[in-house]
Amino acid sequence: MRMLRIALASLTTRWPSLLGAFLALVLGVAMTAVMLLGLAAAVEAPPGGEESVSLVAALGTAGGVSVFVSAFVVASTYSYAVVRRRRELGLLRLAGATRAQVRRTVLAEALLLAAAASAVGCGLGRFGAPLLIRWLAGVGMAPAGFAPSGSVWPLHAAFWTGLLVALGGVAVAARRAGRVGPLDALSAADADTGVLTPGRLVLGLGLLLGAAVLAGTALATDPADLLHRKTYTTRPMWLICACGLLSPLLAPPLVRGLGRLLPARLFGHAGRLVRANAGSALRRTGAGAVAAPVLVAVALTGSLAGALDTVSAARGAEAAARTSADLVVVPGSAPTAPTARLVAALGTVPGVDAVCATAPTRLALVEPDGVPVRAEARAAAPAGLTALARLPLLAGTPAALDDDALVLPAEWGRTVGERVPVIRADGSRTALRVAAVLRDGLAADGLYVTPANAPGARVDRIELRLAPGADRTAALAAARVSATPYGATVLTRADWLAVAAPATGRIARLRTALVLGLAVVYTGITLAGTLLTTTADRRRELALLRLAGATRAQVVRLVTAESVLVAAVGAALGCAVTAAQLATMHAALAALGVPAPWALPWRPVGLVTAGAVALAALCTAPATVWVLRARPVIAAAR
After folding, report:
1. How confident is the model over 303-312, as pLDDT tens digits?
2. Most Cβ neighbours (<10 Å): which of 25, 186, 301, 582?
3. pLDDT at 638 over 50
4. Closest to 530 in 3D by CA, of 556, 493, 504, 567
5. How many C-beta atoms surround the C-beta of residue 349 within 10 A?
6. DSSP class per residue in 281-311
7. β-pairing, 327-330 with 429-438?
8. What is the dihedral of CA 159, 165, 167, 170, to 10 degrees?
């Protein structure tokens, strides 16, 4: 009970130093509540088919990312807040408090602060959820009937998640606080020592090794899994946690390297002091409060935006690599004549030496246990498929395709010559021989049959290959003349690829914006609050600089440069996570045989990094001016 009274008194008197932790938790709970309320509304909305399923998946992913981001940032902020109270905790030890009592005091403070912050965050979440729902409906991501939910379980979940996040984040810091000795109250040094503990090093290396093992296992067994949205959204979290834990080891060389980029004209010899301050205060720099939000924001932005562009570029590259067509004809929605006549007419166009008409169909392949698995397939004549398709063969040949055979990807686990029970689109059953096995890729149409096994299928594209030396302009004009009576459209290879494998779609980008938007805003606000509180905590240190002869302008420039340097360290670690994530995805594409170009997210990463650096400067400079308003002699004596 006595420790509880001490905790209440400490919260009352030291609230400015805990403001950053309080703000981080309030916004984290609010962000989680908003996502969960949106998820509840999506679940309760009238069934909307694929659109509803997609919205539920997007909100669920955004909710998971929100919890991760808030937990990571809150843990770093609470850890720093406890470390800054080393002298106060040392005085408690001098006054006779045991280690267990000190730990209980720190945990009691965290519990009281977390309860208040979670309650405020739930209130903000209840207010913000309708705004999210209106935005989703406005941009076309929500189905008809999407409205705010009256459920209370999202608020309960967000509240208790906030408490667990706070207590989990402060648990390690409380254990460390219990080890503070009585003589630490007499220490005047603020340098961080013993930041990289053996447990922290082992855990960080373990996470790094775990991420590498998971990626290596996926590359060896199922490379395509690394290209799925859920996978490339969650895998960066392993690397972010590993970088956060190992930052005491990674930050000092980054501080020294980036610190040398400070313009000597503005800082001169003070640049050494900037590097020394940033390198000695590891909990404020690479290991904690200031760098952590920047690391999370840059890493998630680069990883998700880069993954989205990488998959989009890979789909385009794969579509281009799988066909040798020079022209593609798309039949109209209501052709004026049978498609067979259109194919025959196109075959007579001067310069055309190969024609392949394909049609989408659905099949169900029966697994050995008798379970039918539905799949997208394409129906094509064997001669045309052999002439125009560039299929990534593992075994067999598409020339062996006939009415008694099929071509399928390796993911089905079948071998050439094996009989596969198949249910055709009209419900009829047959058993088809495997003519060829293809390497797995990104395309959904890696399964081919002949038109005889695709009843009711309607041709949706006709590929034309021109003879070497043929006049492409004349062939295009002639093909358009032949296709016009049939209501068909003739496209060049480039135009068709732009339609068949377009750049990242609007809805996909909106989903990414939903996942990243609140997380980036949250980390930005948290970074601003942390910068203000950490600068205020340095009142005595800055006063000693003034007494040593530094002018106010010099101190302001020095502290601002230090904050900018720390933000740059966080951004560098975030870029390292992004590079590792994209390298893993490209290794997966190489394993799948997809010649995808690198799609580096320079713009979003640059914007987030520039925003973090600008925010560091804009928050630190005014806070430093405010701290320096007191006379140095008075401030140094406190």
Report:
1. 888 888 888 8
2. 25
3. yes
4. 567
5. 24
6. -TTTTTTSTTHHHHHHHHHHHHHHHHHHHHH
7. unpaired
8. -140
pTM comes to 0.78
For residue 407, give the nearest of 422, 428, 426 by alpha carbon. Answer: 422
Give yes or no for a contact between 346 and 329, defined as CB atoms under 8 angstroms apart: yes
CA angle 55, 61, 62 (to 5 degrees): 90
Q: How many residues does the chain have?
A: 638
The predicted-structure confidence for 139-177, as pLDDT tens digits, reads as follows 777 766 667 777 788 888 888 888 887 777 677 666 666
Residue type, position 268, single letter = G
Q: How far apart are CA 630 and CA 626, in angstroms?
A: 8
Which of 305, 350, 344 shows the shortest CA–CA distance to 485?
A: 344
Partners of residue 433 on adjacent β-strands: 405, 419
Question: What phi and psi, each to the nearest 5 degrees, are found at residue 465?
Answer: -115, 135
Residue type (1 letter), 619: C
Q: How many Å apart are CA 476 and CA 466, to the nearest integer? A: 10
Q: Which residues contact 404 (CB under 8 A, 6 or more apart)?
A: 432, 433
- Pull the structure tokens for residue 609: 């990094």
Q: Which DSSP category does 502 fall into?
A: P
Domain spans of the chain?
1-187, 195-321+503-638, 332-487
User: Under a CB-based contact definition with an 8 Å cutoff, are residues 394 and 439 in contact?
Assistant: yes
Give first-to-last CA distance, the chain, whole Å. Answer: 30
Q: DSSP secondary structure string, 43-80? A: HHSPP-THHHHHHHHHHHHHHHHHHHHHHHHHHHHHHH
